[in-house]
Specification:
The protein is α/β, with parallel strands linked by helices. It is 40% helix and 16% strand. It has a 5-stranded parallel β-sheet with strand order 3-2-1-4-5, sandwiched between helices.
């Protein structure tokens, strides 16, 4: 041990660390705004809470709103294999309802558009969120509980588990007691 080293050791000083040039990697950019929201809806009364929440949030944030409705052909089948409605009839009705929401949003100054797809609702909502690069998905919950999810599956649960972005599950709003 050299004299300077033994003197530092005796005095409790540690040797100086060699100077290293280390470039710190930039921190990933935090998402500070939500610019594009996706409302997943079947355009029924059961989706009312999610629809209202989506419009309120889009207005507060100045975000655009994409309305996605998925027609599940399996849900149109009756026991015995007959259809209770044709996909084209359901699509036409959903387009009318979605267009009403687009007009509502435009009256409020929002940029609103819609997509109507056919397939498995959970998978199609996740695919739309990925394809459209949305910042958040809003989806309604029918409040079926654990047994209902076990027997029927849960679109909202599938979206929460698989979406590429945050998901807000909107429970039905309570109506105030008179």
């Amino acid at each position: 041990m050299t004299a300077p080293q033994s003197a530092r050791k005796a005095s409790g000083q540690l040797p100086a660390a060699p100077a290293l040039a280390v470039a710190a990697a930039p921190a990933p950019a935090a998402r500070t705004t939500l610019g594009k929201l996706l409302l997943a809806t079947d355009l029924s009364e059961a989706s009312f809470s999610a629809t209202e929440e989506a419009f309120e949030l889009a207005l507060r944030l100045g975000a655009s709103l994409l309305i996605v409705s998925v027609i599940d052909p399996g849900s149109l089948l009756l026991p015995g294999g007959r259809f209770r409605a044709r996909v084209d009839q359901v699509r036409e009705r959903r387009e009318q309802l979605a267009q009403e929401l687009v007009e509502r949003g435009r009256r409020d100054g929002l940029v609103v558009s819609f997509l109507i797809w056919t397939g498995d609702p959970g998978d199609m909502i996740v695919s739309a969120a990925e394809a459209e690069r949305v910042d958040m998905v809003l989806v309604g919950s029918h409040g079926r509980g654990a047994v209902g999810r076990l027997l029927l599956g849960s679109v909202s649960e599938h979206v929460v588990r698989n979406a590429p972005c945050p998901v807000l599950v909107c429970r039905p709003r309570e109506t105030p007691a008179a």
